[in-house]
Amino acid sequence: MQRRQFMTGAAALGAALVLPAAARAQDMPAGPVKIVVGFPAGGGTDVLARLLGQKLGVLWNLPVIVENRAGAAGVIAAEQVARQPNDGNTLLMAHVNSHGIAPGLQPNLGYSVDRDFTPIALVGKTPTILIGGAGQPAKTLPELVQLCRAQPGKIVFGSAGSGSAQHLALEIFKARAGIDVLHVPYKGSAPLMNDLLGGHVQYCFEGMTTATPLIQSGKVVALAQTLQQRSKSHPNVPTVAEQGYPGFEASIWFGMVGPGGMPPGMVQRMSRDIDQVLAMADVQQKLAQVGAEDGGGGAQRFADFMKSEQKKYAKTIQDAKIVAQG
Fold first, then answer.
1. What pTM was estimated for this model as a whole?
2. Does residue 289 lie within any of the structural domains?
């Protein structure tokens, strides 16, 4: 009898020791973690993914690697990750293009953001900045709106491409301000900046990474930025919201997602750990260098944010009759 009681007690103790370990195992992927990035190495999305990957590898005691799969503004990478098992071994650094704009822009998109992805964490937002050539007449947002109203359809705005985040920022602003301008899409920011500096284009919304050195050199003038609060990287540039358009936001954002249907415990663990990494002092410093702010806050916050972004951009695309390039 005593022996039976001892064996029963030993079994219970063994189960108590094994269950927490099993529970912990369910919270983490079984093998190396791959973060897929839909843009070339060295860009802002890639820099953030590698920064997170390095820190998360230490927290998880697992190898975390970054794989660049560039093309179609992040859509190719998103399609790849949507087809992967939902075991947490493959994640995606999602981008506003693939998970905010593309669902409303591309009717034949090869994935559903809601069905095929699991939101984990918002990593950060960066503003687009409304800039103009140094020789252009309007130096402030109110002056530009007045100029556009005085010359409807004649003030030339460029963008990095039809349906790009920069183009959508322009369309949202046009609707809010009630102005009509001439939009000229380019194949990327580089040729657009050349024509802006050459005077062929007068104004544009541009990503912070491209715009910042031109602003600092005095080659262009910054009229506004598109987060609701001023970016720490550009504290002297007023927001669109504070210049008469409350609630205006058209950010370029990044967030971590996995394939659809990931285990809730794993999602919670990953989201909590990403929040921890984003709060680290050295990470905060590097985020500031690329202007990424307002990350973290949990998986539900990111899920709600993505839904609101998809709704906003889908309406803008429909109202402006924007069609996908190519």
1. 0.86
2. yes
